[in-house]
Design goal:
The chain is α+β, with helices and mostly antiparallel strands and about 80 residues long. Helix content is about 15%, strand content about 45%. The chain has 1 helix and 4 strands. The protein is flat. It has a 4-stranded antiparallel beta sheet. The protein has one helix spanning about 55-65; strands at about 5-10, 15-25, 25-35, 40-50. The protein has one domain (about 5-65): Transcriptional Co-activator pc4, Chain A (Roll), CATH 2.30.31.
Length: about 80
């Protein structure tokens, strides 16, 4: 996170990844980044992705709608 970035909102973590909305000098971004806690280091790593809000998020939402739906779950057991 650059010095001019500030956290607007922090969402629930998913595993070792932290999801935050950051305010930057270029607008808001969705930041999904690995966070490590161990005896020698605690903090965000360079592993992650930043998406400009709303440009890339709108594209991702559109792409998600194009995905085929998952098959219905079944209770039948395979023989």
């Amino acid at each position: 996170m650059a010095k001019q970035d500030s956290v607007v909102r922090e969402l629930n973590p998913i595993g070792k990844y932290r999801i935050r909305i950051l305010a930057t000098d270029k607008g808001q971004v969705l930041d999904i980044r690995e966070y490590i806690q161990d005896s020698s280091f605690e903090g965000f790593t360079r592993r992650g992705i930043r998406l400009t809000i709303p440009v890339e998020t709108d594209l991702l939402r559109h792409a998600a709608y194009e995905l085929p739906s998952a098959p219905e779950p079944t209770t039948r057991r395979k023989k």
